[in-house]
Predict the structure.
Amino acid sequence: MDGDTLLDQVERAERALVDASRRSVRTDGDRPDTQERTVQDDFDAIIAAEQKIEPRDWMPDAYRRTLIRQIAQHAHSEIIGMQPEGNWISRAPSLKRKAILLAKVQDEAGHGLYLYAAAETLGIGRDELVAMLLEGRQKYSSIFNYPTLTWADIGAIGWLVDGAAIVNQVPLCRCSYGPYARAMIRICKEESFHQRQGFEILFTLSHGTPGQRDMAQDAVNRWWYPSLAMFGPPDADSTHSEQSMAWGIKRFGNDDLRQRFVDMCVPQAEVLGLTLPDDGLRWDADRDRYAFTPPDFDELARVIRGDGPCNRQRLAHRRRAQDEGAWVREAAAAHAAKRSGGTP
Ligand code: FAQ
């Protein structure tokens, strides 16, 4: 739709969410009176009516497990995702840039917290989720296993990584699980600002000295393919897409979203005056979309398995932060217990 920005889509999803909460769900269906309704029938009716499943509702175990996996992976990504950018907080080129970056990294901590809270509504504790991350039993996004070598990488992360995140996450604002959908609306509004700040960093560099321009181009060259890989394996190799789409958790396949991202980035790269590192990139008039060279999915598989450039460093840092923060969590629990008159 012309002029339909990602933020317009988020606002539409927000309105749909409010409307859905006002409609009552018909759970009687066409079933004859003689046949007893099952909780599965009610669940199916809610999904078919595009209503939201709420924590109090019955849901199939596999639906619950899929949500826990995806929401936890998403939460872990936000928290681990603070590391590559955190690397540049003390080296930002001006006080203003530093303040903006600090605020962005704090937003990511906030996103992690909304998401852990959404996962907790499914009956699993945050401690348990964090333990699963640290023991390597849950994943986080492949993208955060790449290093941030120059200041331009902060621009490339904002433009490309937040850009990919928002293309992937806007449809999640219409996810069938209410707490996740509501968290995503808030997150997407903030991600949109993040993407613009990344674009602005790159725009400044690409219109600066030749050295700054080269630095911006080099960052885009390194972050382009890892960003395309963020959308996951091709649909044919995606384990969960089909079922997740049937449940209204995912709304689109990985390849479709990857294509939307490419179509969004090409004109933006032109405005930046930077090139995307793909000789195969060209307008395909028959499909009304850009043709592009896909990412190296073997590399994605290696990074997911733990063999990317920074996997070990990221997890070691997270483990250290968890250990060093233990006293803060204990003190907070003791303080809360004291205020409520109990023991921790
Ligand atoms: N990295 O069957 P599918 C952000 C795994 S937040 C690692 O297609 P699904 C904000 C997948 O888990 C970025 N693993 O899976 C920010 C599955 O493994 P399993 C995070 C990946 O779930 C910006 C297997 O491969 N966003 O960037 C990846 O249907 C800047 C088969 O894949 C989200 O988490 C990958 N890239 O689709 C923060 C969004 N791709 O569990 C800081 C929510 C796939 O069977 C700075 N998540 N895998 O062993 C989703 O939309 C989906 O989970 C997908 C994957 C699309 C990521």
